[in-house]
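hi! just following up on the protien thing from before. the input was this:
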Amino acid sequence: MTGVEGLWPHNLSPNRLAVLERKLVIWLQKQPLPADIHEMTLHYNSHEDLQLLTQKAASQGCHFSELQTTVQAIISAKTDNFLELAEIAGLNPLEDFAQAKLLGANLSGLDLSGAKLPNAYLRGADLSDIDLTFADLKNANLGGADLSGALLSDADLSGADLHRVSLVLANLSGANLTNVNLEEANLSNCNLSDVNLTDARLKNANLHQAGLALTNLAGVDFTGVNIKEARLWHDAGISENVKADLIKRGAIFDENVEKTKRD
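and the predicted 3d structure came back as:
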């Protein structure tokens, strides 16, 4: 075994590759290997890094025969369902995928509430209609991912990269989105009530008909944002000048509507 090529082919689905890579990394972390190799398992970024990591482990006398049985079971499985593949691999989908590479994975409609996915790489993944309530997604890379209809209530997405994601009809009520990159994201009809958006970058994002009740908007960049018919109510961190500008651009501040009705 001279590297990853000796373990599995690379014309596999994103779900299989994600589970196989994660199984390999966690398996290597449990082997009696030098500290520098264990450190590499925490910080590898590419297929080339993983190839080098596997070669280093082999040169230290690491035997992959036990792992190969699980690898073959994943490759030959008659399912591509992420949860079922994780079960075959002996992995806990809620605990074992922190920092995992899940490029282009299909997690649509899955229940991953409470999952620990900090620093996970989910670019281009299909996360439509997924349940990620209370999930830990700190500093995750979700650029270009489809989160349409996703349930993200009370999730922690602080520092995450959400550039060009689709969050159409998603529910993020109570979520932590401090310092996130939401540039060019589609958040139309999204529920952002009670969300902390402090210092979020929303340049050129689409917030058409989004709901932002009790949302913390301190330091938010609204440059180029489509905020037409978005409804805001008692939001924090927004100046009167910014409020006036957003109203000119079509935002609806429901506290103003309430005041008009009282008057």
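The first helix runs from residue 14 to 29.
The helical segments are 14-29, 35-43, 47-59, 65-76, 82-89, 240-248, 254-262.
cheers
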